[in-house]
Task: structure prediction
Amino acid sequence: MQLKKNMQLELDIDSFGAEGEGVARWEGMPVFVPGALPGERIRALILKAEKKYAFAKVTEVLRPSAQRVAPLCPHYRLCGGCSCQHMTYAAQLEFKRNQVEGCLRHIGGIEAVVRPALGMDTPWRYRNKTAMPVAGTAGSPLIGYYARRSHRVVDISGCLLSSESAERTVAVIREWMESAHIPPYNEETHTGLIRHVMTRVSRSGDLMAVLVINGKRLPAAEQLLEALRRHVPEMVSLCISVNQKRGNVILGDTYSVLWGRDRLEDTLCGSRFLLSPLSFFQVNPEQTEKLYQTALSFAGLQGNEQVADLYCGAGTISLLLARHAAHVTGIEIVPDAIRDAKSNAVLNQIGNADFICGAAEAVLPGLVDKGLRPDVIVLDPPRKGAENAVLQAILQAAPRRIVYVSCNPATLARDARILCESGEYAVTACQPVDMFCQTSGIETVLLLSR
Result:
């Protein structure tokens, strides 16, 4: 029987999908059901039916899994920010470990022992950065996160992953937009002003607020600043970033400071870091320290190695590696991040690291052609993975070890396959780290040894 939209049927969930949704089989065809767990029998409503797969929603859980729990967040069913709150934390960690193992096997053709994912003792209130899209109207703005598989903004108050000071910041900005009739951005018409509200909070509690705007100036800025300083005493910086381009990129290419500091200072792995709004910095400091210590362990440094750190951001991994190596060269395309990386080297009295501004796919091949032969290469690319030019340059450089840090198991597996198919490398260790608790995301450190 061919499935059709609005059909109701009973399904047995037998596995997880890539985003933590349950997967059932209907006459051999996969049916993806968010909020369902393996081992459950459910009553479901078909939302979308294609020739080879379908999507459905749970209307009733007939036989619940022992791993099912009640989500703590009242926005959970609507918001697309989290997808795993309906399962125990132990089940989340095992799902993520299996996700990494499955991608390595099915995409990378790699059989590897994937260690249990490193989790948090308290997997809530961990985010040091939030970037919330804005929609609605000037009289009734919506600030929150997108609903699943859409660009419809769900208005959020009380997110259990962000800090309380970040919540107060958003509340003040929402009230200011209402009272001053500041129009939110409309991505369909490319009109309106406020596109995103971004906050960054340091481990000491200092907060940086950033408004991303579709315009050159911010009206009623003094009114906003007065309200933020009154209700968010932790705020040390208020910035704007102009982004007048269409598309999904959040921040513009530059930023300006309306009040306070131009950079936020934070600590990680015993080092201090200055961070501009445009600099990449991991969102979960407690788990980042586990991630970076794993990367350092996999690098196996003895103190005399030359190391290349690709996609180095503000130099967080570079400076940790530099304490244990002869020299580290960091490569990053974002000029503000490179500026921060150089400042951070000085701030931490690291003299054996240098940083190059440019795309890794352009810079690394040139350095290798000129004779660069690192003993260890560390790379932490964006979700799309590493460019082929980067992978080929790595193979040409022939480092003893490659430490690949990734937030996307699929592109990690794809790139690992290319490196292993050279015949020069094999995967010798794999450690997932739960950086994004309550969501389907997972960070992974992969060691490839020559």
In short: The longest helix spans residues 89-106. Residues 8-68 form a domain with the OB fold (Dihydrolipoamide Acetyltransferase, E2P) fold (CATH 2.40.50.140). Residues 268 and 289 are 7 Å apart (CA to CA).
